[in-house]
Design brief:
By secondary structure, the chain is mainly α. 43% of the residues lie in helices and 8% in strands. The chain contains 23 helices and 20 strands. It has a 3-stranded antiparallel β-sheet with strand order 5-6-7. The protein has a 3-stranded antiparallel β-sheet with strand order 12-13-14, with no helix packed on it. A hairpin with a 4-residue loop joins strand 13 and strand 14. The radius of gyration is 25 Å and the shape is globular.
């Protein structure tokens, strides 16, 4: 990647800002990173030929390096008389045994203890929700009260997009009860949902949130109840008559008006469950919100034999895909559903984009539709070409660790210097794609941020080594990636990561009636909200991380998690359709030629790159771990 052209505008801004800081406070351009020497004078060198390798360093480039050609020429002028140049990474060699001692083993007794802690964490939150909040949507764990939609303030979308007056937390946690082995409570919860939940409500909700939290959970619980393979044992109910599937169908029908009266086929972001889309509804939606419906809608279509739901979801994905940049292949994060014009031109891996990429791959895994993987493959190539900075290899070579930044979708230029906590899902997706080494490096960066704050700030400024947005709503993304990396490598390092996260949550988020959102990751002040995904995902992944004998791990059948952490089987019946191709001969579909090798293939060879002998050594070399820890201000 050509850093010079991408960063030139940001470098000028950075130099100007540094000059102002110097005038006001006597701070020079190296203020952003508290390194022990001036990074502006630091060069990286290739150990093989001694040439400059500064293009691998996003930290230095941001700190005001000049023209690359000038730096190379200046280096060559004094090359004959200059002393042998040392490696940049030698700064981080330190005591390599420190990391080995801490992370290289994890006793079975400690694993059992952590499994118990994760289970206790879930049931402390769940039991208090049932005691103080049900049938309302959410628990306020500080005041021990329930919460539903904010009917007095319809514009409060932070609450109203998610809470629909339909016992959200109970529904969202159904399959977690089975994962944790409590079949009797699962049965009780299913009966409560069947007896008490109705979607005939005057509630305006976000289509995306209703889909992943409610629709996905109902479908998952229905499948687990009726799955003849019974991964959790015989958990069927004698009098069960597909009521959860009927509820899921009813909800999906109520979401369908979002796909009407849209010129592009991209759905409206919100819908009223009684009356449909409001006449004054906005015409702007985010890419992930509109393009992450295919898994749940597709499974529903294949369960009931009605192509409508998969058809509208797939049409939305194709519409977004056809709006990608011709120059970079990237998509933006906010689009006008009527004009097809990009309102938000930021392309990244976090909020507004994340699950779009996730569902391209997971849709292929579930449905076997070649088109889905071709879109994922082309997207991944564009991400690698335009968003990725740092050294080429995660675990070898010189330069900064890999970092995925936010860029302009049309020209690939960096738009800001923050990453957000939702991006921590991406290492898990890399694992599913077989890119385990890359996942290891990216995960280590987010774990270092967690170690510094005991949580992940919603946005972290990698230039300033400081949070940009300070709250942490108990998100699961880092835990999810930790779990998937452990499943891929069985390296005890990831058990230590899970223990750190679990103990941080116990220490910093636990309150009288549950676990509370951290309002401020530094001072650990709290907000009275426990989002449903804490029970549905965060606790589930923590428990599974420490439970090697879970039926999901022992089953001969394969399962995958939706973006809300709901369990669905990889089943041959989902690869069969009772209808003809949905989009025969439609133009604009990604072709085989769009991938770099010009042919359709799934390359899983990367899975073999993590060798067996590395299982009990660090997944990332000590020198690189120290480097990352230093870059986030841990020392």
């Amino acid at each position: 990647m050509q850093w010079k052209s991408i960063l030139v505008g940001l470098v000028v801004h950075r130099l100007t800002f540094s000059c102002l800081l110097w005038l006001a406070f006597g701070l020079g351009p190296s203020w952003g990173f508290n390194f022990p020497l001036n990074l502006n004078k630091l060069q990286l060198f290739n150990e093989d030929d001694g040439t400059s390798s500064s293009d691998n360093s996003w930290s230095q480039r941001i700190h005001g390096h000049g023209d690359a050609q000038s730096r190379t020429s200046c280096a060559k002028l004094g090359e004959e008389n200059s002393p042998k140049k040392s490696s940049y990474l030698s700064l981080f060699e330190g005591d390599r045994d420190e990391y080995d001692r801490r992370y290289s083993s994890f006793p079975d007794t400690l694993k059992l203890k952590m499994k118990g802690m994760a289970k206790d964490m879930f049931f402390f939150g769940y039991d208090n929700y049932m005691k103080y909040a049900f049938p309302e949507d959410e628990l306020n764990p500080i005041d021990c009260q329930g919460r539903g939609p904010d009917v007095l303030n319809p514009s409060n979308i932070n609450i109203n997009d998610v809470l629909g007056n339909y016992s959200l937390t109970l529904i969202d946690t159904l399959d977690t009860l089975l994962v944790l082995g409590n079949v009797s409570e699962f049965h009780r919860a299913v009966k409560l949902v069947i007896d008490t939940v109705s979607f005939d409500k005057d509630s305006t909700v976000q289509v995306f949130e209703a889909n992943i939290r409610i629709l996905g959970s109902l479908i998952s619980a229905h499948i687990l109840l009726t799955d003849p393979k019974h991964p959790f044992g015989d958990v069927g109910l004698d009098d069960y008559d597909n009521e959860l599937l009927h509820l899921a169908h009813d909800l999906a029908v109520r979401l369908l008006p979002a796909f009407e009266n849209t010129s592009t086929g991209i759905p409206h972001p919100r819908v009223n469950l009684k009356s449909g889309v409001s006449p004054d509804s906005i015409n702007e939606t985010c890419t992930s919100g509109a393009g992450s419906l295919l898994v749940e809608f597709g499974i529903l279509s294949r369960l009931i034999g009605d192509s409508t739901f998969e058809w509208v979801a797939r049409r939305a994905v194709r519409a977004l895909w056809n709006l990608r940049s011709n120059e970079t292949g990237l998509l933006g994060n906010v689009v006008n559903i009527q004009t097809g014009q990009w309102v938000g031109m930021q392309s990244g891996l976090g909020a507004g984009m994340d699950s779009f990429y996730e569902y391209l791959l997971k849709s292929y895994i579930l449905f076997g539709e070649k088109e889905d993987y071709l879109m994922f493959q082309a997207s991944y190539e564009s991400i690698q070409n335009h968003l990725r900075m740092g050294r080429e290899s995660c675990n070898e070579g010189e330069g900064d660790p890999p970092l995925y930044v936010n860029v302009n979708m049309f020209n690939g230029q960096i738009m800001n210097t923050w990453i957000d906590s939702l991006q921590a899902f991406f290492p898990g997706l890399l694992v599913l794609n077989g890119d385990v080494e890359e996942a290891i490096c990216m995960h280590a960066f987010y774990y270092a941020i967690w170690k510094r704050f005991g949580a992940l700030p919603e946005r972290y400024n990698w230039q300033l080594q400081a949070p940009d947005v300070l709250f942490y709503p108990l998100r699961p993304e880092l835990v999810e990636s930790t779990y998937l990396l452990y499943q891929a490598t069985k390296n005890p390092f990831y058990l230590h990561v899970g223990m750190d996260i679990l103990e941080s949550l116990e220490k910093n988020a636990k309150v009288r009636c549950g676990y509370a959102t951290l309002h401020h990751v530094v001072d650990k002040s709290k907000e009275g909200r426990m989002e449903s995904f804490f029970l549905s995902e965060t606790c589930k992944y923590l428990y599974l991380l420490f439970d090697d004998d879970n039926p999901l791990h022992k089953s001969e059948n394969k399962y995958i998690f939706t973006t809300e952490g709901h369990v669905v089987p990889i089943d041959a019946r989902f690869r069969e359709k009772q209808w003809n191709d949905l989009f025969p001969c439609e133009e604009g579909v990604v072709t085989d030629q769009e991938s770099s090798n010009g042919s359709f293939s799934i390359n899983n060879s990367n899975c073999d790159r993590v060798s067996e002998e590395r299982r009990y050594s660090l997944p990332l070399k000590s020198v690189y771990m120290r480097q990352i820890d230093h870059m986030v201000g841990l020392f």
